[in-house]
Amino acid sequence: MNPDDNDVPWEQVKEAVKERWGDLSDDDITEVDGDAQRMCGVLQEKYGLTRAQAEQEVDNFWARHNLS
């Protein structure tokens, strides 16, 4: 995960985020705004993941959607 990579086409992947993590609200997704570090924090909070687990989830999602 590249925490400095903020060039994510976020508007294009919001629906995929909603599908993958259905417990995230629109406000959560807006807060993330394509930032991998924020996404990890939100996943930790909403799903009770460890930091390492959240980073792995985000890495996998970013890779699957060519966001890295």
Automatic annotation (TrEMBL):
<comment type="similarity">
    <text>Belongs to the UPF0337 (CsbD) family.</text>
</comment>
<feature type="domain" description="CsbD-like">
    <location>
        <begin position="10"/>
        <end position="55"/>
    </location>
</feature>
<dbReference type="Pfam" id="PF05532">
    <property type="entry name" value="CsbD"/>
</dbReference>
<dbReference type="InterPro" id="IPR026042">
    <property type="entry name" value="YjbJ"/>
</dbReference>
<dbReference type="InterPro" id="IPR050423">
    <property type="entry name" value="UPF0337_stress_rsp"/>
</dbReference>
<protein>
    <submittedName>
        <fullName>CsbD family protein</fullName>
    </submittedName>
</protein>
<dbReference type="InterPro" id="IPR036629">
    <property type="entry name" value="YjbJ_sf"/>
</dbReference>
<dbReference type="InterPro" id="IPR008462">
    <property type="entry name" value="CsbD"/>
</dbReference>
